[in-house]
Automatic annotation (TrEMBL):
E.C. no: 1.11.1.7
Main location (coarse class): secreted
One GO CC annotation: extracellular region
Active site as annotated: H84 (proton acceptor)
Protein name: Peroxidase
List of residues binding Ca(2+) 1: D85, G90, D92, S94, E107
Listed PANTHER family: PEROXIDASE (PTHR31388:SF38), PEROXIDASE 72-RELATED (PTHR31388)
Disulfide-bond pairs as recorded: C53-C134, C86-C91, C140-C309, C209-C216
Site (Transition state stabilizer) residue list: R80
GO biological process: hydrogen peroxide catabolic process; response to oxidative stress
Length: 317
């Protein structure tokens, strides 16, 4: 049986991670792997906070480490927040805004997020810790990007150097949020939604989670992840990954990215490629996560650094 792996939802052996780390990073920094085009026009930088908030990464990591002791599902939830942020108006923290009607209608209530997107209180905790250490410096959009990388890494996935320097938006986009990739979308619609943000089939396969049916079913029991050994991660294997992140369900992926009539000519070969070559998969996972984090960031003087991730700073009314 083919056992496809996904970047955002898998757990991998640490030894592989360490072995791969250095060159995966090189590939990522070069912005290209396996003939894939480099990310265009990114103004982000992995050293963005080196002078202004050198402990930013450590602070985010510490808050997540503490929080996941009581909420083992948290890393997965944080990865998903970055995804749902970046697909709407680019990675600008718009997902984090609460209702402030009539100006701000929160994206948290659209079907893809309602009772499903979670982890917001931990984002608040991260923001508080960062505001304490370096007030007004680290954006909420960058918090989500950092949290996603740290979460992939904590789950035993690859490491990479997160590109930073995003600023926070001051609006939400409900129409776009209502159009987030859906569980019910056929392959061609998912491909189109990814293409709209410059992500290709390879990214769809490396990132997508639709093939984890149980995990992708709203209302998966909270206790499903309880048995994780958080303090000393083991050498995780695919079985473990299947059990834990997919609520002990059998992976549905064999059917999903493989069975659509359009799959044979598009995603199916990629699924096979990743399933048979973890090295290939790992490097694509990193490249795709970086590409996703590069979707239309606000930089320079655009946007703002929110003081509170749930509210814009100056409402202007
Ligand atoms: C390709 C289109 C995608 C669809 C249709 C999809 C759909 C879903 C759905 C329905 C859930 C279940 C939410 C719940 O249990 O309430 C889910 C969970 C999740 N998704 Fe996706 N997803 C997609 C792509 C992605 C991508 C690109 C990422 C990461 C980069 C991602 C990461 C996750 C994670 C980590 C979870 C678990 C979240 C948690 O446990 O809180 N997904 N997804
Ligand atoms: C995603 O899963 C749902 C439910 O299993 C299915 O209806 C849909 O076609 C799947 N999407 C793809 C791209 O396979
Ligand atoms: C696996 O993928 C890597 C990176 O693309 C490549 O260098 C290597 O040759 C592949 N291994 C096999 C057995 O195909």
């Amino acid at each position: 049986m083919v056992r496809p792996m996904t970047c955002c939802t898998s757990i991998y052996g640490r030894f592989v991670v360490v072995f791969l780390f250095s060159w995966v990073r090189l590939l990522a920094l070069a912005g290209a792997a396996h003939g894939r085009p480099p990310v265009a026009g990114s103004a982000l930088s992995s050293t963005f906070y080196d002078a202004s908030c050198p402990r930013a990464h450590d602070i985010v990591r510490r808050v997540i480490q503490n929080a996941r002791v009581t909420d083992p599902r948290l890393p997965a939830s944080l990865i998903r927040l970055h995804f749902h942020d970046c697909f709407i108006n680019g990675c600008d923290g718009s997902l984090l805004l609460d209702d402030d009607l009539p100006t701000i209608q929160s994206e948290k209530h659209v079907p893809a997020n309602d009772n499903s997107a979670r982890g917001f209180p931990v984002v608040d905790d991260i923001k508080s810790a960062l505001e304490y250490a370096c007030p007004g410096i680290v954006s909420c959009a960058d918090i989500l990007a950092l949290a996603a990388e740290i979460s992939v890494e904590l789950a035993g996935g690859p490491h990479w150097r997160v590109l930073l320097g995003r600023r926070d938006g001051t609006t939400t986009n409900i129409e776009s949020a209502n159009n987030l990739p859906s569980f019910f979308d056929p392959l061609n619609v998912l491909q189109e939604k990814f293409r709209n943000v410059n992500l290709e089939d390879t990214d769809l396969v490396a990132l997508q989670c639709n093939f984890t049916r149980q995990n992708c079913t709203p209302g998966q029991p909270e206790g499903a992840l309880e048995n994780l050994d958080l303090a000393t991660p083991k050498l995780f294997d695919n079985e473990y990954y299947g059990n834990i992140l997919h609520g002990r369900a059998q992976l549905d992926s064999d059917q999903v990215m493989l069975s659509d009539p359009a799959a044979a000519a598009s995603t199916a070969p990629i699924v096979h490629r990743f399933a048979s070559n973890q090295t290939d998969f790992f490097s694509n996972c990193v490249v795709s996560m970086i590409k996703m984090g590069n979707i239309s960031p606000l930089t320079g003087k655009n946007g703002e650094i929110r003081k509170n991730c749930r509210r814009v700073n100056n409402k202007g009314y």
